[in-house]
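Please decode residue identities from the backbone states below.
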């Protein structure tokens, strides 16, 4: 298949392009400022809405994995026009272009579409975002439903992986680095998530693209944990000193945007439908340890 991946320099996109190339697909790797390491590079600034249709038309893909987004939650709160443009309006343009090209669209969305009052959300639950990032991603979902032909909306939660992407570390890498240097790390005890390993998510979204899996799916890690419990498990698997973890609370963070307290996701629908199942946390962390080792040796 010919697959166009947006956000190919990002945490998910970089894993998705590697996996798709290994799977024998022809991969176009769309990016903004950071040139991706694999695939046929395609610079496509998603704020230039008028360029999107033409660029997609030239590639003429069979499937699009739309992973690009403004993911900095506080920045989305401050720079609302930009967040709306990248996360919602560009998604609308991609959805229209996908239908025009007859391409199946996999849109990567987020647990932050939920308000976090209950947790373990299923695909049937009503979204109710508490911040502007979540609002723009939900708008993106609405545009996909209205405009795309065949589509899958894949919602993930706190993505982590073995290498920095798009010029940034991620929660797991930050911890490994900090604790590895013997420094203390403050970690939230009162925020619950379904941490998602990027390579596992890439496998699930690629399968959705290959099979044209229609509908909304929660594609996240299979365990609900607090950030603190996640960090403690990571210490166990990586042999790091868990006594350096210092419990912190959401109220201490001084964030600009509100965060959901418990945005964990029920992944049973994805587990039933996909060959590449959502991973238990312990399996995901052992996989991460293997991938981390490979990267350090490279
Ligand atoms: N990270 C999480 O914890 C998390 C959790 C749930 C859902 N999600 C969703 O999962 C998807 C992937 O997230 P991620 O963590 O992999 O993202 P990421 O690492 O922050 O990377 C974002 C990607 O979007 C691209 N991008 C941003 N603005 C752009 C623009 N104006 N034009 C073109 N490209 C632009 C970036 O390109 P350049 O770097 O080349 O500029 C980069 O490739 C997103 O849709 C996000 O909403 C993320």
């Amino acid at each position: 298949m010919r697959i166009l991946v947006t956000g190919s320099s990002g945490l998910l996109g970089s894993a998705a392009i590697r996996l798709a190339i290994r799977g024998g697909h022809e991969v176009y790797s769309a990016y903004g400022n950071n040139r991706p390491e694999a695939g046929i590079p395609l610079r496509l600034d998603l704020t230039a809405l008028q360029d999107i249709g033409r660029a997609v038309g030239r590639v003429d893909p069979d499937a699009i994995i739309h992973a690009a987004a403004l993911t900095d939650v506080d920045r989305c709160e401050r720079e609302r026009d930009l967040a709306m443009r990248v996360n919602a309006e560009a998604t609308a343009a991609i959805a229209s272009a996908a239908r025009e090209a007859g391409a199946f669209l996999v849109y990567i969305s987020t647990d932050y579409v939920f308000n976090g009052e209950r947790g373990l959300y299923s695909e049937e639950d009503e979204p109710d975002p508490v911040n502007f990032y979540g609002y723009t991603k939900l708008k993106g979902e609405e545009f996909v439903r209205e405009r795309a032909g065949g589509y899958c909306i894949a919602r993930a939660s706190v993505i982590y992986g073995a290498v920095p992407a798009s010029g940034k570390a991620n929660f797991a890498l930050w911890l490994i680095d900090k604790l590895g240097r013997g420094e203390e790390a403050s970690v939230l005890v009162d925020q619950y998530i379904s941490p998602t390993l990027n390579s596992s998510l890439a496998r699930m979204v690629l399968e959705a693209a290959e099979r044209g899996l229609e509908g909304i799916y929660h594609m996240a890690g299979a365990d609900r944990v607090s950030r603190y419990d996640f960090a403690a498990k990571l210490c166990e698997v990586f042999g790091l000193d868990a006594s350096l973890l210092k419990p912190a609370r959401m109220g201490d963070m001084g964030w600009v945007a509100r965060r959901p307290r418990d945005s964990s996701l029920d992944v049973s629908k994805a587990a039933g439908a996909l060959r590449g199942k959502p991973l238990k946390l312990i399996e995901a962390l052992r996989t991460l340890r293997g991938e981390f080792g490979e990267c350090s040796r490279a």
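Observation: Residues 7, 9-13, 31-34, 44-47, 67-71, 86, 108, 110-111, 137, 156-159, 165-166 surround NAP (CB under 6 Å).
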